[in-house]
Fold this sequence. Notes:
The chain has 113 residues and is an alpha+beta fold. It has helices at 3-14, 60-67, 69-74; strands at 32-35, 50-53, 90-92, 95-99, 105-107. It has a 3-stranded antiparallel sheet, with no helix packed on it. Strand 4 and strand 5 form a beta hairpin. The model has no long low-confidence stretch (mean pLDDT 93).
Amino acid sequence: MNERTARVAVYNRSQGLCEVGVPGYCIGVGQSVHHRKNRSQGGTWDVVNLLHTCGDGVRHCHGWITAHPKAAHRAGWAVKSYEDPADHAVKMHGRFVLLTADGRYEDLPEEAD
């Protein structure tokens, strides 16, 4: 997927809102596209690798992800260079979901008791 197509798909998925929502940092409006796997680590413009975030790499939710890599990884907002973003759930609006290649959210299956 090219950058322009990916940005449109992420915007459509988020409806223009920040998909991260870090309490005390989030301003609600999606302003930038964050790569869960950094481009410098082989991250692509595939929609499963992208989140619509408020702020930039130093402010608001996007900045929080940059400044708190371990916590961001636990929330699925960042993945390691050897991980596939498609295999890692993302915390969105208080619940974990999988991002799909067609630009949707997919609820995780309920665990059997």
